[in-house]
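Subject — a protein and its fold

Tokens — whole-number codes for backbone shape
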Amino acid sequence: MDHRPDKLFLIYHLHFFFDLEETEYVHKIHEKVTNQISHLAKIFPLLLRPAGPLPKPMFMLEFSKDVMSEIILFFKQYEENYSILIHPELANEVLAHTDHSIWMGKRIPLRLEYLT
């Protein structure tokens, strides 16, 4: 594996968190994301439970650094009502989810014990 710094921040994940009672509405958001920006990112299905360090239901996108500004611009419309975490894919997942992460909307505590 190549650990040079210029190789570490190439792939990013975005986690769009929601509450279960919002699932029907978030399905519509997910459809909009799929219809409007699937050319920029790999879009994963809704996950209706916490998983690993992620404490709430969510859906995830995976994208490259070169489309970061477009992704952020698109998700700005949701930051008032949702918690959105963006982080690089790194070997050190704790650093990826903390020091190198970006939050849009309300920051929520992650379950970092799953990463150690």
Observations:
- The chain has four helices and five strands.
- The two ends are 20 Å apart (CA to CA).
- The beta strands are 11-17, 41-43, 58-64, 83-88, 102-104.
- The helical segments are 5-8, 23-37, 68-75, 93-97.
